[in-house]
Amino acid sequence: MKKISLGQVAVYVVLGLAAIPVLFPIYYGFVGAVMGPGDLATYPPALVPHGLHWQNISDVFRSVPLDRFYVNSAIQAGAITLAQIVTSILAAYAFAFLRLPAKAVTFALFLATLMVPWEAIIIPNYLAISGWGLARGGLTYLGLVLPFLASAFGTFLLRQAFLQFPTELRDAAVIDGCGHWRLLWRVIVPLSKPSIAAVGVYVFLSAWNQYFWPLILIRDSEYQTLQIGISQLNDAEVAQPGLVLAGVALSLLPTLAVVLFGQRYIVRGLTAGALR
Amino acid sequence: MVFALFVFWPLGRTLYLSVHGNDLFGAPSVYVGAEHYREMLTAEFGKVLATTGLFTLFSVVPAVLGALVVVLLLEARIRGVRVLRTAFALPFAFSVATASVVFAVIYNPAIGVANGLLGSLGIDRVNWLTDPSIALPAVCAATVWMNFGYNVLVLSAGVAAISPEVVEAARLDGATGWRLASRITVPLLSPQLFFLVVVSTIHALQSFGQIHILTKGGPDQATTTLVYSIYEKAFAFGSSDFGSASAQAVVLLVVMLGCTAVQFGILERRVHYR
């Protein structure tokens, strides 16, 4: 057996101690979801469930229409992701390859939008969107998506990716009679799939997790997104933490899957700004 | 086009609204010049700015330093590193809303686990979210937790990008443990650390969900940050004071640009780009 040095033991101990506060809320979120009131609504609260109380999962749907919120969030985040991928690809192509008047200035303005906090412009956007009547009924979806059709971050990341293609590749395609449109969709996009996936994962997570905009915009509870729904569930069922945690656990499944399976792309997207 | 419509035009409009009064329904009525800005020269708004500063400091620094320590320790040649790294990155899967709700349950004064733990240590219950001196640290702690996974992901990617030859050469020269970390790994990680400090500061200044869910800015304004104050003025309790809120939004923009500029000015000189 390999000998373990004292230093390594110390490392294990420190990491183990650090892992407790990091992992506990995750453990509690999922285990609490199947704890009965006898475990949760008592003092001191139990840390290990006495029997699994699956009823929470079905009861939570009686408290709030979680399934409906799920659909709303899927439509909202899906539409934003799709739209941003398409607009980012087109804009990145234009910034990378086309000869445009004042391209440098336009690109600088594009990047400048990264510096404008969304909260600083949320009031005029709110007034515009609700003024156009996009805060009621089915139009709510449009109101949720419209301000997020384009992304400076996605455009920037894809432009960097597109610029890495050797010019010979482009020249060869052009000589073969390939127009801009075909070059983009048949050559550039298929070759840039990892970068596009990175943008997609990043955009999806941030859209799915949006809080401020849906909170102020949505008036009909039918069109509420999951994040706001979970927060309302918390307000409505303070006395029943089991129900609240069941809602949390259910709403976490998609992002957990994205994080566990899309980790490669997340890291790529996250660090695009850190490495130059 | 989209940017013109939803970023630049609103930006101008924020400035416009910030110098206009508004009627009961929030429509801009008369030009009031700098009045909304003068309104901000009060102790109340000073407290909002101080809260924002404290919240930013105590949510950014512990999360970045903590993640750095964990990532450096994961570099020690031990078993199970991969599993541990994934475990430390997991909080990233939580949205601000879901994480805040879990912490709301944990902080529950009567039946929460936080007080359960204190109770088993023989310490009296604490009103985590309703005691004015404890609410802000409690919200900061929750925010540190939310950001931890992201920071671990970014720093791990940075460590993975360090070329093994450099580390090997340092080891051959007899550098181990603390010296290796402080002289080699941390300087080579400085681009990622700088990125994290800038991005987390921006994020912290924009934080909203955790404050809305955990404390609603209370108790007694103890957790009202700038963004929450904008929300309260413009949207909460049927308030539509878009003028004052816009003036505060301009302050937010200036603070954020200022912070970023200062960080670039002071910190970036010490960053070691490969």
Explained architecture:
- The complex is a heterodimer of chains A (276) and B (274).
- Chain A is mostly helical.
- Chain A has two domains: 48 residues, no CATH class; 208 residues, MetI-like fold.
- Helices cover 70% and strands 0% of the residues of chain A.
- In chain A, α13 packs antiparallel against α14.
- The mean pLDDT of chain A is 79.
- With 274 residues, chain B is mainly α.
- Chain B has one domain: MetI-like (MetI-like fold, Orthogonal Bundle), CATH 1.10.3720.
- In chain B, 69% of the residues lie in helices and 3% in strands.
- In chain B, β1 and β2 form a beta hairpin.
- In chain B, α1 packs across α12, α5 packs across α7 and α9 packs antiparallel against α12.
- The longest helix of chain B has 32 residues.
- About 2% of the residues of chain B have low confidence.
- Classes of the chains: A mainly alpha (276), B mainly alpha (274).
- The interface between A and B is large, with 80 and 91 residues.
